[in-house]
Structure formats: C-alpha cells, structure tokens
TrEMBL record:
Tagged with keyword Protease: yes
Clp R domain location: 2-184
Highest taxon listed in the record's lineage: Bacteria
GO molecular function terms attached to this record: peptidase activity
SUPFAM superfamilies: Double Clp-N motif
Source organism of this protein record: Streptomyces gobitricini
Stated name of the protein: Clp protease N-terminal domain-containing protein
Region of interest (Disordered), residue spans: 103-122
Keywords: Hydrolase, Protease, Repeat
Gene3D superfamilies per UniProt: Clp, N-terminal domain
Length: 189
C-alpha cells in the first residue's frame, strides 16, 4: 500500500513516528498522525487546515489532545455515556492523579527502551491508513495523499476526530477544503 503514498503522505507517516519517539510513546497513534499533518506546509492538508483556521490554533489542538490523554484517551462520547450512568470522569481523573501524580492515566509511555527505535502503529492508526486508501479510491484518486490521511482521521470516531471537529475541521468541512478551488496542485494522479 505504501507504494501508492505520495511523498507528502510518506512524510506524514515518518513524521508520526518522530512524534511518537519525541513523546517516548511505545507506539505510533492517530494523534501522532495528526501532529505530523500539522507539521506539513504547502500540501492539500495544510491548505485545508489554513482555510479552516486550524493552523493558527495548533496550540489549542495540542492542548485538547493532551487533555484527552490525561483522561486516559476517553472520547467525548465515552465521557458523556459515563456521565449518563452517574460517573464523573473529571472526578475520577482528579482522584487518580492525587494518588499517582498528574497524567497517571495518560497512555503511550514506553515501558522499556527499544534497541531498534522502531515503534509499531496502533491498530486504530493502521485502520486510519487503510481508511485513507478507501477514501482515495472512493474519490477516484490513484495515489494516497496527505489529504486522504486527514480525511481518514476525521472519519474515524475517536479523540482525534473529536478534537478536529471541536476546531471546525469536521469531515465535511475538510472534504470541502481539500476539494475546493484553493486546494492547490498537490494532488497526484
């Protein structure tokens, strides 16, 4: 499948691995894919982020991702479902952090050092890559570009899609932005 990736899409995958390494995470997650997409310039995803105002709000995106990590990766839907059962996630997080320290519920820390430095992709991150292929094919594109990775992140339910939507980057808005007249010529095909 990677032979179908454009240079920008390959840069996202490589950049995600770098973000995972910097965070000392044991694997590459959807969050790392989003951060790598935010690093790009001059690509279709970068144009979409600019058009939707996400680029200038990157600190807010990073803060929202950190807060979700602090909640143990629970999505907004998870938190609301638990609240409906009378479970206050904020209270649980506070109690756990009081006993075990700030960020105790955050996942992704490497339990041991890897000699090779290789970090595998999580199942959801792999599914995002697979979804990007399906999106590219559905759009009639022969190659998988960074825009397909971005659309796949927005299409898959979870924390990353929640954070994107909270910043005005829903799947529909992103699809319009990557297909619009200012999307640029980064489309391979």
């Amino acid at each position: 499948m990677f032979e179908r990736f454009t240079e920008a899409a390959r840069n996202v995958v490589e950049g995600a691995a770098v973000h995972a390494e910097r965070a000392d995470a044991d694997s590459v997650t959807e969050e790392h894919l989003l951060l790598a997409l935010l690093d790009l310039g001059g690509t279709r995803s970068a144009v979409a982020f600019d058009a939707l105002g996400v680029t200038v709000r990157r600190p807010s995106v990073e803060s929202a991702l950190a807060e979700a990590r602090r909640r143990g990766g629970l999505t907004r839907a998870d938190t609301e479902a638990l609240a409906g059962m009378g479970i206050d996630v904020a209270e649980i997080v506070s109690r756990v952090e009081a006993a075990h320290g700030t960020g105790a519920l955050a996942s992704g820390r490497a339990p041991k050092r890897r000699w090779s430095g290789h970090r595998p992709f999580t199942r959801p991150a792999k599914h995002t890559l697979e979804q990007s292929l399906r999106i590219a094919l559905a759009r009639g594109d022969r190659h998988i570009g960074d825009e397909h990775l971005l659309l796949a992140l927005a299409a898959r339910p979870g924390v990353v899609a929640d954070v994107l939507a909270d910043h005005g980057a829903t799947y529909v808005a992103l699809e319009r932005a990557v297909s619009g007249p200012h999307a640029g010529g980064a489309k391979a095909g």
